[in-house]
Amino acid sequence: MHIPDGYLSPATCAVMGAAMVPVLATATKKVNDTFDKKDVPTMAIGSAFAFTIMMFNVPIPGGTTAHAVGATLLAIALGPWGASISLTIALLIQSLFFGDGGILALGANSFNMAFLAPFAGYGVYALLQKLKVGKVISSAIGAYIGINAAALATAIELGLQPVLFHAADGRALYFPYGLSQSIPAMMIAHLTVAGLVEAVITGLVVYYLMRAGEGNILYKFSYRLRGEAK
Amino acid sequence: MSNFIEKTVLGIQSTFEDMFASDEIANKKGLMQSLDPRVRLLSIILLIVIANLGNSLYYMAIMLVYSLILAVLSKIPMKSYIARISAVSIVFTGIVLIPSLFNVVRPGKPLIYITGSLYITKGGALSALIFIMRSFVSLSFIYILTLSTKWIEILKALRYFKLPKVFSATLDISLRYITLFLDVASNMFLARKSRSVGKSKGKSERKFVASSMGNLLIKSEQLSDDVYNAMISRGYKGEYKTINNFKISRSDIIWIIFNVSLFMIFFLLKGGKLWI
């Protein structure tokens, strides 16, 4: 889901980057308000964690592998604001040091994966928790919704390119497929394979933590970052 | 199927190789290496912006040649460099673009007929060619930066541009712990490989990946405690200070003047129409 450079027009990148500014500003403020000196190493380790688990290959039926993003998992552990900072940093490292995802597209990529995914995922998780659904199921459904929200946003950003940016003769200047092609292509892949991988892995991680007697890690990591009193 | 283990371990391995390679290349005496890291970072970002603004075949060809010359002058090993960039920008992007060549996806003037009603359009082919070149050029600029610059220098340069403290400190610490985590993760996967005989079920493999993640999360929690205590014992009070010693040299000034004049000429050539 990492959009490389050259797919989006610079104007789109600028808009998406601008959209990320208030998100990150609010995240910084939220974190600063409840700032504890300990949060910097916690978020740093969180982003190293996010980076590392994105490298884990998950076997899927059919013999190939996929990988999870872990946005919802991180949002459950660090709270959505802390997760969005951690994930933005992880994406920055991927693009700047490994060429994975564009530098200009960083705004768009972080909007999708570091803002929409953790917030949608965490929102659903929190809602299901209120409805007294178990943690494992809530986190799996949250992860499924989170990753698909990000995929839909990616498809829309890509699909808007030929509508907004084309030459006088109708030739596409950037990404050539319109919304009617990009949305089905992205969503079929994510509603089925990628979404399920994310859901199963997130659910299993939470299950493992509960089984290992470390379920409280989902709280004690971040009661402050989440704005809950201890 | 244990290939998910091999894939992961190899992926992590190549990340370590990248880190090592960039340190090695950064020590060579090349063009990029002679510039101040701040100038390097900023010029690469600007070059990517400039490359992405253009939409003509000529302009992309010029940028392509420019990026290749820059890579050669920066003593970057060309074979692996081109292979890696091509994998993403030509192979991956190329596959994505195949349907867009045809008139059924985007109507246009015919270029090559496949059957009576199906043909490759001129516009589609031209767009795809420019698209691939743009993607190649953007990626090659990023690789030139990462290969010619030590990570620590990129970090220092980023710090100079005054990111909010939460970010710069987080980025700093995180980059250091990625190395540790990758090592831990690689060991977990290797340990699993050495314990497994024969075939295992997909379900248990997925369980293994998830429990490794969970285990890593538990380790992270302990580690962030340890890091925090280590920081406290070194006098950390919630402020994060670093020593920066940058110097703009003559080569930086020559580089800046050269590039500014080069791109001024580009934008003025053909009445400013070269790049569109």
From TrEMBL, chain A:
It comes from Thermoanaerobacterium butyriciformans. The keyword Membrane applies. It is found in: Cell membrane. The keyword Transmembrane applies. Keywords: Cell membrane, Membrane, Transmembrane, Transmembrane helix, Transport. Gene3D superfamilies: 1.10.1760.20. It is a multi-pass membrane protein. This is Cobalt/nickel transport system permease protein. The chain crosses the membrane at residues 7-28, 40-60, 72-97, 103-128, 140-165, 185-210. It comes from the Bacteria. PANTHER family: METAL TRANSPORT PROTEIN HI_1621-RELATED. It holds the Pfam family CbiM.
UniProtKB/TrEMBL annotation, chain B:
Keywords: Cell membrane, Membrane, Transmembrane, Transmembrane helix. It comes from the Bacteria. It is a multi-pass membrane protein. The keyword 4Fe-4S does not apply. It comes from Thermoanaerobacterium butyriciformans. It is found in: Cell membrane. CDD domains: EcfT (cd16914). The chain crosses the membrane at residues 41-73, 85-105, 125-145, 166-190, 253-269. The lineage of its organism: Bacteria, Bacillati, Bacillota, Clostridia, Thermoanaerobacterales. This is Cobalt/nickel transport system permease protein. Its main location: membrane. InterPro entries: ABC/ECF_trnsptr_transmembrane, ECF_CbiQ, ECF_transporter_component.
